[in-house]
Amino acid sequence: MTEPTLARFEPRSAETWRDPFSMYRALRDHDPVHRVPDNGEGEDYWVLSRFEHVLAAAVDAATFSSASGLTFHYGEMEKLGLESPIVMMDPPEHTALRKLTIKRLTPQRSAALEPMIRDFAVGRVDRLRESGSGDVVAELFQPLASLVVAHALGVPPDDREIFERWTSAIVSAGASGSVLDSGEALGEMLTFFGRLMEARRAEPEEDMISALVHGRLRGGEEVSAAKVLGVCFTMVTGGNDTIMGLLGGALDLLTRHPDQRAVLLADRAAITPAVEEFLRLTTPVQGLARTTTRDVEIADRTIPEGRKVMLLYASANRDEREFGDDASQCDVTRRVRRQLAFSYGPHHCIGAAVARLEARVVLEEVLSRCPDFAVDGDAGRYAPGSFVRRHEHLPFEAVAS
After folding, report:
1. What is the SS3 assignment for 304-333?
2. pTM score of the predicted model
3. Does the pLDDT of residue 311 top 70, yes or no?
Protein backbone atom coordinates (compact mmCIF):
# COMPACT_ATOMS: atom_id res chain seq x y z
CA MET A 1 0.00 0.00 0.00
CA THR A 2 1.33 3.44 -0.94
CA GLU A 3 2.04 5.72 2.00
CA PRO A 4 -0.16 8.87 1.96
CA THR A 5 1.87 12.02 1.33
CA LEU A 6 -0.62 14.86 1.95
CA ALA A 7 -0.03 14.97 5.70
CA ARG A 8 2.91 14.50 8.01
CA PHE A 9 3.21 14.46 11.78
CA GLU A 10 6.12 16.38 13.26
CA PRO A 11 6.50 16.66 17.05
CA ARG A 12 6.20 20.19 18.34
CA SER A 13 8.07 21.95 21.16
CA ALA A 14 8.47 25.51 22.46
CA GLU A 15 7.83 28.06 19.70
CA THR A 16 6.53 25.46 17.23
CA TRP A 17 3.55 24.92 19.55
CA ARG A 18 2.17 28.24 18.34
CA ASP A 19 0.11 26.58 15.62
CA PRO A 20 -0.03 22.77 15.42
CA PHE A 21 -3.65 22.87 14.30
CA SER A 22 -3.18 23.05 10.53
CA MET A 23 -1.02 19.92 10.80
CA TYR A 24 -3.74 18.20 12.82
CA ARG A 25 -6.40 19.03 10.26
CA ALA A 26 -4.29 17.72 7.41
CA LEU A 27 -3.82 14.47 9.29
CA ARG A 28 -7.55 14.14 10.03
CA ASP A 29 -8.52 14.85 6.45
CA HIS A 30 -5.84 12.98 4.53
CA ASP A 31 -4.16 10.39 6.75
CA PRO A 32 -6.08 9.74 9.99
CA VAL A 33 -4.08 6.56 10.72
CA HIS A 34 -0.64 7.95 10.00
CA ARG A 35 2.69 6.13 10.17
CA VAL A 36 5.79 8.09 11.10
CA PRO A 37 8.67 6.29 9.34
CA ASP A 38 11.56 4.60 11.11
CA ASN A 39 14.14 7.17 12.19
CA GLY A 40 16.94 4.67 11.71
CA GLU A 41 16.72 3.38 15.27
CA GLY A 42 13.64 1.22 14.89
CA GLU A 43 11.40 3.96 16.20
CA ASP A 44 8.61 4.14 13.66
CA TYR A 45 5.27 4.90 15.29
CA TRP A 46 1.66 5.64 14.40
CA VAL A 47 -0.58 8.66 14.94
CA LEU A 48 -4.37 8.73 15.37
CA SER A 49 -6.01 12.13 14.82
CA ARG A 50 -9.78 11.66 14.43
CA PHE A 51 -12.10 11.75 17.44
CA GLU A 52 -13.67 8.34 16.89
CA HIS A 53 -10.29 6.60 16.58
CA VAL A 54 -8.66 8.37 19.53
CA LEU A 55 -11.67 7.73 21.77
CA ALA A 56 -11.81 4.05 20.84
CA ALA A 57 -8.11 3.61 21.57
CA ALA A 58 -8.30 5.50 24.87
CA VAL A 59 -11.00 3.21 26.26
CA ASP A 60 -9.36 -0.01 24.99
CA ALA A 61 -6.49 -0.45 27.45
CA ALA A 62 -6.25 -4.14 26.58
CA THR A 63 -5.18 -3.29 23.02
CA PHE A 64 -3.54 0.10 23.59
CA SER A 65 -1.33 -0.41 26.63
CA SER A 66 0.27 2.26 28.79
CA ALA A 67 2.76 -0.11 30.40
CA SER A 68 5.58 0.67 27.96
CA GLY A 69 5.41 4.41 28.53
CA LEU A 70 3.48 7.33 27.12
CA THR A 71 5.93 8.85 24.63
CA PHE A 72 6.71 7.79 21.08
CA HIS A 73 10.17 6.59 22.18
CA TYR A 74 10.79 2.89 22.67
CA GLY A 75 12.42 1.51 25.80
CA GLU A 76 11.58 4.62 27.85
CA MET A 77 10.72 2.65 30.98
CA GLU A 78 14.10 0.93 30.94
CA LYS A 79 15.82 4.29 30.48
CA LEU A 80 13.98 5.79 33.45
CA GLY A 81 14.93 2.89 35.69
CA LEU A 82 11.90 3.57 37.89
CA GLU A 83 8.91 1.54 38.96
CA SER A 84 5.96 2.40 36.76
CA PRO A 85 3.93 5.39 37.99
CA ILE A 86 0.16 5.04 37.96
CA VAL A 87 -0.22 6.60 34.49
CA MET A 88 2.01 3.85 33.05
CA MET A 89 0.01 0.93 34.45
CA ASP A 90 -2.75 -1.12 32.87
CA PRO A 91 -5.83 -2.62 34.52
CA PRO A 92 -6.24 -4.41 36.87
CA GLU A 93 -3.10 -3.10 38.64
CA HIS A 94 -3.94 0.44 37.57
CA THR A 95 -7.58 0.12 38.66
CA ALA A 96 -6.73 -0.91 42.21
CA LEU A 97 -4.29 1.94 42.78
CA ARG A 98 -6.60 4.45 41.08
CA LYS A 99 -9.45 3.59 43.47
CA LEU A 100 -7.29 4.54 46.43
CA THR A 101 -5.96 7.68 44.80
CA ILE A 102 -9.23 9.10 43.58
CA LYS A 103 -10.80 8.96 47.05
CA ARG A 104 -9.27 12.35 47.75
CA LEU A 105 -10.20 13.84 44.36
CA THR A 106 -13.89 13.12 43.98
CA PRO A 107 -16.09 16.01 42.75
CA GLN A 108 -17.48 16.37 46.28
CA ARG A 109 -14.05 16.59 47.92
CA SER A 110 -12.80 18.85 45.16
CA ALA A 111 -15.68 21.27 45.75
CA ALA A 112 -14.49 21.72 49.34
CA LEU A 113 -11.30 23.30 47.96
CA GLU A 114 -13.15 26.24 46.42
CA PRO A 115 -12.70 28.69 49.34
CA MET A 116 -8.93 28.06 49.39
CA ILE A 117 -8.63 28.39 45.61
CA ARG A 118 -10.79 31.50 45.48
CA ASP A 119 -8.93 33.21 48.31
CA PHE A 120 -5.61 32.58 46.57
CA ALA A 121 -6.94 33.67 43.16
CA VAL A 122 -8.42 36.89 44.57
CA GLY A 123 -5.12 37.84 46.19
CA ARG A 124 -3.07 37.18 43.07
CA VAL A 125 -5.51 38.81 40.63
CA ASP A 126 -5.69 41.88 42.87
CA ARG A 127 -1.90 42.01 42.90
CA LEU A 128 -1.84 41.96 39.10
CA ARG A 129 -4.53 44.62 38.98
CA GLU A 130 -2.66 46.89 41.38
CA SER A 131 0.61 46.54 39.47
CA GLY A 132 -1.18 46.96 36.15
CA SER A 133 0.70 44.19 34.39
CA GLY A 134 2.83 41.10 34.95
CA ASP A 135 3.54 37.54 33.93
CA VAL A 136 0.26 35.76 34.71
CA VAL A 137 1.96 32.35 34.61
CA ALA A 138 4.48 33.24 37.32
CA GLU A 139 2.09 35.41 39.35
CA LEU A 140 -1.02 33.21 39.29
CA PHE A 141 -1.11 29.97 37.31
CA GLN A 142 2.02 28.19 38.51
CA PRO A 143 1.74 29.02 42.24
CA LEU A 144 -1.98 28.15 42.24
CA ALA A 145 -1.32 24.77 40.65
CA SER A 146 1.46 24.04 43.15
CA LEU A 147 -0.78 25.05 46.07
CA VAL A 148 -3.59 22.71 45.01
CA VAL A 149 -1.25 19.75 44.43
CA ALA A 150 0.47 20.37 47.78
CA HIS A 151 -2.88 20.45 49.57
CA ALA A 152 -4.08 17.24 47.91
CA LEU A 153 -0.89 15.40 48.86
CA GLY A 154 -0.90 16.73 52.42
CA VAL A 155 2.20 18.93 52.25
CA PRO A 156 2.19 20.98 55.48
CA PRO A 157 1.73 24.75 55.00
CA ASP A 158 5.22 25.49 56.38
CA ASP A 159 6.77 23.36 53.60
CA ARG A 160 4.81 24.75 50.68
CA GLU A 161 7.30 27.43 49.68
CA ILE A 162 10.09 24.90 49.19
CA PHE A 163 7.59 22.49 47.61
CA GLU A 164 6.74 25.15 45.01
CA ARG A 165 10.44 25.57 44.17
CA TRP A 166 10.86 21.80 43.78
CA THR A 167 7.75 21.65 41.63
CA SER A 168 8.94 24.44 39.34
CA ALA A 169 12.33 22.76 38.84
CA ILE A 170 10.83 19.32 38.16
CA VAL A 171 8.14 20.54 35.75
CA SER A 172 10.70 22.63 33.84
CA ALA A 173 13.13 19.70 33.61
CA GLY A 174 10.36 17.37 32.44
CA ALA A 175 9.31 19.80 29.73
CA SER A 176 12.89 20.15 28.50
CA GLY A 177 13.67 16.45 28.40
CA SER A 178 13.64 14.44 31.60
CA VAL A 179 12.66 15.08 35.21
CA LEU A 180 15.88 13.28 36.11
CA ASP A 181 17.63 16.46 34.97
CA SER A 182 16.01 18.55 37.72
CA GLY A 183 19.14 18.39 39.84
CA GLU A 184 18.74 18.28 43.59
CA ALA A 185 15.01 19.11 43.45
CA LEU A 186 13.88 15.58 42.58
CA GLY A 187 16.00 13.91 45.25
CA GLU A 188 14.96 16.42 47.89
CA MET A 189 11.29 16.03 47.03
CA LEU A 190 11.42 12.23 47.11
CA THR A 191 13.19 12.33 50.48
CA PHE A 192 10.53 14.73 51.76
CA PHE A 193 7.71 12.45 50.61
CA GLY A 194 9.42 9.48 52.24
CA ARG A 195 9.33 11.31 55.59
CA LEU A 196 5.75 12.42 55.01
CA MET A 197 4.69 8.82 54.33
CA GLU A 198 6.10 7.74 57.68
CA ALA A 199 4.33 10.61 59.44
CA ARG A 200 1.02 9.69 57.84
CA ARG A 201 1.39 6.04 58.79
CA ALA A 202 1.61 7.16 62.41
CA GLU A 203 -1.03 9.89 62.19
CA PRO A 204 -3.26 9.78 59.08
CA GLU A 205 -4.97 12.90 57.80
CA GLU A 206 -7.45 13.67 55.03
CA ASP A 207 -4.91 13.65 52.22
CA MET A 208 -3.89 11.38 49.37
CA ILE A 209 -0.71 10.05 50.98
CA SER A 210 -2.72 8.96 54.04
CA ALA A 211 -5.21 7.17 51.79
CA LEU A 212 -2.39 5.32 50.04
CA VAL A 213 -0.25 4.29 53.01
CA HIS A 214 -3.31 2.96 54.86
CA GLY A 215 -4.92 1.44 51.75
CA ARG A 216 -4.84 -2.08 50.40
CA LEU A 217 -4.61 -3.33 46.84
CA ARG A 218 -6.58 -6.14 45.18
CA GLY A 219 -4.73 -8.94 46.93
CA GLY A 220 -4.87 -7.23 50.30
CA GLU A 221 -1.25 -6.12 50.13
CA GLU A 222 -0.07 -2.68 51.20
CA VAL A 223 0.80 -0.04 48.63
CA SER A 224 4.56 -0.08 48.24
CA ALA A 225 6.59 3.03 48.98
CA ALA A 226 7.64 3.09 45.33
CA LYS A 227 4.01 3.18 44.19
CA VAL A 228 3.15 5.95 46.65
CA LEU A 229 6.11 7.97 45.40
CA GLY A 230 4.97 7.28 41.84
CA VAL A 231 1.56 8.78 42.59
CA CYS A 232 3.19 11.83 44.20
CA PHE A 233 5.44 12.26 41.18
CA THR A 234 2.44 11.96 38.81
CA MET A 235 0.49 14.55 40.78
CA VAL A 236 3.40 17.00 40.70
CA THR A 237 3.97 16.69 36.97
CA GLY A 238 0.38 16.22 35.82
CA GLY A 239 -1.25 18.69 38.19
CA ASN A 240 0.87 21.68 37.21
CA ASP A 241 1.61 22.13 33.53
CA THR A 242 -1.86 21.02 32.43
CA ILE A 243 -3.77 23.66 34.41
CA MET A 244 -1.24 26.27 33.28
CA GLY A 245 -1.97 25.31 29.67
CA LEU A 246 -5.73 25.50 30.20
CA LEU A 247 -5.72 28.87 31.95
CA GLY A 248 -3.22 30.51 29.61
CA GLY A 249 -5.10 29.25 26.58
CA ALA A 250 -8.46 30.38 27.97
CA LEU A 251 -7.27 33.94 28.66
CA ASP A 252 -5.68 34.09 25.22
CA LEU A 253 -8.95 33.00 23.59
CA LEU A 254 -10.94 35.59 25.54
CA THR A 255 -8.46 38.29 24.52
CA ARG A 256 -8.66 37.33 20.86
CA HIS A 257 -12.46 36.95 20.92
CA PRO A 258 -14.00 39.89 22.79
CA ASP A 259 -17.49 38.82 21.70
CA GLN A 260 -17.02 35.59 23.67
CA ARG A 261 -15.71 37.51 26.68
CA ALA A 262 -18.85 39.68 26.53
CA VAL A 263 -21.04 36.58 26.84
CA LEU A 264 -19.28 35.55 30.05
CA LEU A 265 -19.28 39.08 31.47
CA ALA A 266 -23.04 39.24 30.92
CA ASP A 267 -23.72 35.87 32.55
CA ARG A 268 -21.37 34.58 35.24
CA ALA A 269 -23.20 31.23 35.24
CA ALA A 270 -22.05 30.72 31.64
CA ILE A 271 -18.45 30.30 32.82
CA THR A 272 -18.97 26.72 34.05
CA PRO A 273 -20.04 25.26 30.67
CA ALA A 274 -17.54 27.53 28.91
CA VAL A 275 -14.71 25.71 30.71
CA GLU A 276 -15.54 22.66 28.58
CA GLU A 277 -15.08 24.71 25.43
CA PHE A 278 -11.75 26.01 26.69
CA LEU A 279 -10.67 22.47 27.55
CA ARG A 280 -11.66 21.32 24.07
CA LEU A 281 -9.78 24.08 22.27
CA THR A 282 -6.67 24.22 24.47
CA THR A 283 -6.26 20.49 25.30
CA PRO A 284 -3.05 21.07 27.31
CA VAL A 285 -1.90 17.46 26.95
CA GLN A 286 -1.93 17.48 23.16
CA GLY A 287 -1.26 13.77 22.86
CA LEU A 288 0.20 10.71 24.56
CA ALA A 289 1.28 7.34 23.27
CA ARG A 290 0.15 3.79 23.87
CA THR A 291 1.66 0.51 22.66
CA THR A 292 -0.36 -2.05 20.73
CA THR A 293 -0.66 -5.52 22.29
CA ARG A 294 -1.86 -7.08 19.00
CA ASP A 295 -2.25 -6.24 15.34
CA VAL A 296 -5.15 -3.78 15.05
CA GLU A 297 -6.97 -2.54 11.97
CA ILE A 298 -8.26 1.03 11.86
CA ALA A 299 -9.69 2.69 8.74
CA ASP A 300 -8.28 -0.02 6.43
CA ARG A 301 -4.77 0.25 7.86
CA THR A 302 -3.11 -2.32 10.08
CA ILE A 303 -0.97 -1.21 13.01
CA PRO A 304 1.30 -4.12 13.99
CA GLU A 305 1.62 -5.47 17.50
CA GLY A 306 4.23 -3.78 19.66
CA ARG A 307 4.16 -0.38 17.95
CA LYS A 308 3.78 2.96 19.65
CA VAL A 309 0.60 4.88 18.78
CA MET A 310 0.18 8.60 19.48
CA LEU A 311 -3.36 9.53 20.51
CA LEU A 312 -3.71 13.14 19.39
CA TYR A 313 -6.28 14.40 21.89
CA ALA A 314 -5.93 17.99 20.65
CA SER A 315 -6.65 17.02 17.07
CA ALA A 316 -9.59 14.85 18.12
CA ASN A 317 -11.04 17.77 20.06
CA ARG A 318 -11.17 19.87 16.88
CA ASP A 319 -12.54 17.13 14.65
CA GLU A 320 -15.34 18.50 12.49
CA ARG A 321 -16.87 15.03 12.33
CA GLU A 322 -17.59 15.24 16.07
CA PHE A 323 -18.04 18.97 16.72
CA GLY A 324 -19.32 20.35 13.41
CA ASP A 325 -17.93 22.60 10.73
CA ASP A 326 -17.10 25.32 13.27
CA ALA A 327 -15.01 22.98 15.44
CA SER A 328 -11.97 25.25 15.25
CA GLN A 329 -13.94 28.28 16.45
CA CYS A 330 -14.36 29.41 20.07
CA ASP A 331 -18.02 29.38 21.10
CA VAL A 332 -18.49 29.62 24.85
CA THR A 333 -22.18 28.73 24.44
CA ARG A 334 -21.36 25.44 22.74
CA ARG A 335 -22.71 22.44 24.63
CA VAL A 336 -19.79 20.03 24.63
CA ARG A 337 -21.18 16.55 25.16
CA ARG A 338 -17.78 14.90 25.45
CA GLN A 339 -14.18 15.91 24.85
CA LEU A 340 -10.77 14.32 25.30
CA ALA A 341 -8.71 16.91 27.18
CA PHE A 342 -8.70 14.54 30.18
CA SER A 343 -8.55 11.41 27.99
CA TYR A 344 -11.28 8.81 28.49
CA GLY A 345 -11.75 5.36 29.94
CA PRO A 346 -9.38 3.79 32.48
CA HIS A 347 -6.90 6.66 32.25
CA HIS A 348 -9.37 9.51 32.52
CA CYS A 349 -7.51 12.17 34.52
CA ILE A 350 -8.06 11.70 38.26
CA GLY A 351 -7.65 15.44 38.78
CA ALA A 352 -10.31 16.48 36.26
CA ALA A 353 -12.77 17.81 38.85
CA VAL A 354 -10.09 19.89 40.56
CA ALA A 355 -8.82 21.28 37.24
CA ARG A 356 -12.33 22.33 36.25
CA LEU A 357 -12.76 24.00 39.62
CA GLU A 358 -9.46 25.89 39.34
CA ALA A 359 -10.35 27.08 35.84
CA ARG A 360 -13.84 28.23 36.80
CA VAL A 361 -12.70 30.14 39.88
CA VAL A 362 -9.78 31.85 38.13
CA LEU A 363 -11.95 32.88 35.18
CA GLU A 364 -14.64 34.20 37.53
CA GLU A 365 -12.15 36.31 39.47
CA VAL A 366 -10.24 37.62 36.44
CA LEU A 367 -13.44 38.60 34.66
CA SER A 368 -14.91 40.13 37.82
CA ARG A 369 -11.84 42.06 38.96
CA CYS A 370 -10.18 42.83 35.61
CA PRO A 371 -12.98 42.74 33.01
CA ASP A 372 -10.86 44.68 30.50
CA PHE A 373 -7.76 42.50 30.90
CA ALA A 374 -5.61 41.43 27.96
CA VAL A 375 -2.89 38.85 27.54
CA ASP A 376 -0.33 39.15 24.78
CA GLY A 377 -0.32 35.70 23.22
CA ASP A 378 2.00 36.81 20.44
CA ALA A 379 4.62 37.87 22.99
CA GLY A 380 3.99 34.82 25.15
CA ARG A 381 6.56 32.05 25.25
CA TYR A 382 5.65 28.38 24.95
CA ALA A 383 7.35 25.79 27.13
CA PRO A 384 9.55 23.11 25.57
CA GLY A 385 8.34 19.53 25.42
CA SER A 386 6.53 17.41 22.83
CA PHE A 387 3.36 16.52 24.71
CA VAL A 388 2.06 19.51 26.72
CA ARG A 389 1.22 22.83 25.07
CA ARG A 390 1.39 25.66 27.59
CA HIS A 391 2.82 29.11 28.04
CA GLU A 392 5.80 29.36 30.37
CA HIS A 393 5.54 33.17 30.11
CA LEU A 394 2.41 35.17 29.24
CA PRO A 395 2.23 38.99 29.61
CA PHE A 396 -0.95 40.21 31.31
CA GLU A 397 -2.40 43.73 31.39
CA ALA A 398 -5.14 44.49 33.89
CA VAL A 399 -6.69 47.08 31.57
CA ALA A 400 -6.50 46.60 27.82
CA SER A 401 -4.87 49.51 26.01
Report:
1. CCCCEEEECHHHHCCCHHHHCCCCCCCCCC
2. 0.93
3. yes
